[in-house]
UniProtKB/TrEMBL annotation, chain A:
Belongs to the RNase PH family. Residues 464-484 have a biased composition (Low complexity). One of its GO terms (molecular function) is mRNA 3'-UTR AU-rich region binding. It holds the Pfam family RNase_PH. It comes from Tribonema minus. Residues 264-294 form a coiled coil. The keyword Cell cycle does not apply. Residues 420-450, 464-508 are annotated as: Disordered. Its main location: cytoplasm. Keywords: Coiled coil, Cytoplasm, Nucleus, Ribonucleoprotein, Ribosomal protein, RNA-binding. It comes from the Eukaryota. This is Ribosomal protein S5 domain 2-type protein. Residues 37-169, 196-264 form the Exoribonuclease phosphorolytic domain. One of its GO terms (cellular component) is cytoplasmic exosome (RNase complex).
TrEMBL record, chain B:
GO terms for biological process: nuclear mRNA surveillance; poly(A)-dependent snoRNA 3'-end processing; rRNA catabolic process; U4 snRNA 3'-end processing. It holds the Pfam family RNase_PH. InterPro entries: ExoRNase_PH_dom1, ExoRNase_PH_dom2, ExoRNase_PH_dom2_sf, PNPase/RNase_PH_dom_sf, Ribosomal_Su5_D2-typ_SF, RNase_PH. Residues 21-150, 154-219 form the Exoribonuclease phosphorolytic domain. GO terms for cellular component: cytoplasmic exosome (RNase complex); nuclear exosome (RNase complex); nucleolus; ribosome. It is found in: Cytoplasm; Nucleus, Nucleolus. It comes from the Eukaryota. This is Ribosomal protein S5 domain 2-type protein. Keywords: Cytoplasm, Exosome, Ribonucleoprotein, Ribosomal protein.
Amino acid sequence: MAIRDGFTHTINTNAFVLETLRGGKQRIDGRELNTLRQIAFQFTRSEGQASVLVQWGRTQTLAVVSAEVVPPYPDRPTDGALMFNVELSKMAEASVGLLRASPLATEITRIIERGIRDSQALDTETLCIVAGEKVWQLRVDVHILDNGGNLVDAAALAAIAALQHFRRPDVTVSGEGFVEVHHSDEREAQPLALHHVPLCITFALFDDMGKQRVVVDPDEVEEAVMKGRVTIALNAHREVCTLHKNGGMAMSAETLLACADVAAAKVVALHERLREELQKADAAARQAREQRLRGGAAFASHTAHLASLMQAAQPMDETADLTRVGHLGYDDLHVTGKVRDAPERALGGGARGLQGDEAAKSALFAQMAKAAADASAGLESKLGKAPVGKRKGKDTASGVGDAELDEFDKVAAGLKQQAASGARSLGGTVSAPAPAADDDAMDSGSEEEQVVVLKSSFKTGNEAASDMAAAASAAAAKASAQAGDSDDDLMAAVKSKPKGKGKARQKK
Amino acid sequence: MSRLDFISLAGLRPDGRRAKEIRRIRCRLGVLREADGSAYLEMGQTKVIAIVKGPHEVSRRSDMLIDKAIVNCEFNLAPFAGSDRRKRRPTDRKTVEMAMSIKAVFEGAVMLELYPRTQIDLYIHLIQTDGGQLPASINAASLALTDAGISMRDMVVSCSAGHVDGQAVMDLNHMEQSHGGAYVPLAILPRGSEILLAKMEARLPLDIFQEVLATALEACRQVHAIMRGEVREHHAALLAAQLAL
């Protein structure tokens, strides 16, 4: 809607609002006298910055917190700085008549400053890096995007929520006083040290022919009709952080204290709601960071895999197969090897793939596949037993169930296909892996099977299943670092059985 | 900094007052002949001059209200007023906040409907500060408006209260105000004890806040007694001078 149906303040509107309040039960938007409007949050976190978009009824505010390393004030060498700034955007002004930006913005800024900074919500001493030289300066910018009434509460809520969501980059101070600020990818950023969480609640005072009426959280219609306003900020411990009654209709001390009581109750509920939202947002932000660090597609499939495993593990009752408990292997809890420093990384869709040229990549793939084939063939003939992975239906000592093995096989198959397609796309050749006897050994995940066999020669049967996962990384590592391979036995075995190698070759 | 007992064992504060005693108030009305109304007020060592110009025609036509007067307030903190000489910009956040507070208070107290299409200007000059800037300014403005003969619902009186060393105290000076404890300036219409302005900095549990609020109200009543006495004296003298003519 290009032009909003503006609210015009008329005598009729005045009379209507006051008459509705006379009833003592409802207000013109259907709320009760002591009910807040619906509040929604949207959190964002990025490097050295956090922002919250608060939607409070029709009022929208956006708070952005950013940090900078600066020299401290000379009279406070060990204190960081916390600065607030509230701006009324033109969007907010245009939607409701005349809003002279600067006095109202200044008033809101001062209320937030008093509520958060002067009530010692944030310990500025924790922002000190090098006493007398470097401290953190935090800047909170609140933008009022839409004015639907009660800007103070929405702005204050956005400000404190943003401060809670913000993560301060970690710093190290070297001996000479050189300060290094770490990117949050290297070192996890720290939350701010907030002692308490002050939240504002605003009350509107109406003059109904001499009688005073009080409501909580006025919307824009009520704001136009009201004759006075009082804002009380409290924290969840029933401590008054700031009080702001700036002229307007006079009120008695009893009314003020009654308002403080109502505000205390509202703040406790709002604080709880904010805490839940912050937890969700923090979890989402952390996951996004993990995803960014470890590579997109591989991690996505991994988390799905992990999730399915977790689901399979529940419920935990007496009748459940206890052996199913230990199915979370190393690979289920870590996504190493497949995506970190591995040649396959380029295939896995990770952000950091191999930076070599195409020929080198294809050569590497060929080497990998060849080594895997050789090793498995050699070992098999040497040990004369089926690969570990073939223990389908057999309850192993480490308690790997059927379903999990199948799942793993599927993942392995997928990876193998990716490897093959990757090598093909780079114009390299892949020597088809050719393990021995069993037919099903050839199928899905044969490369993985071979890899499994590789590991099994050095571990006992108990550890075999748990090492299945490590096998993926092991295979790649071994393939790409043959010369420096520590598994000398394996290579000796491979080298000593050329006949087995040839036999395997013939099969495919 | 050595630890200072804000309330000593004898129950005295550093300036010799008890917890529930306000500072000495001295005030004079009509100190400037040129202004429509003026007043000089001292609350302890805090010294204020307030000047009223109006009601007069609105300088900016667009601001004019057809049914009411508008109130403008300008607050000046002299550079030599505090312990450090500092010239503050007129758009300094605290200055603007003070001016807005004083304006809002008197918009609620002055009978604006009696002066439609006009403007009432308040100029507050703080020439020495020792805590309690806002209450002193409001009191001085109240006297100046009385001197100007502008109708008000009631005289506005203001005082501060706080919480130091576990006790609620009245009328804080600069040291007590800036030590980080609670500071509650309050402005009321004394007849019905109606609150026009209430602010607070720093944290207080709700029950202690009730006690501090009650203390502030009592302080305002004490201030009112003194100011009313002075106003009566001043006008009695004026009346006597007129009758003598």
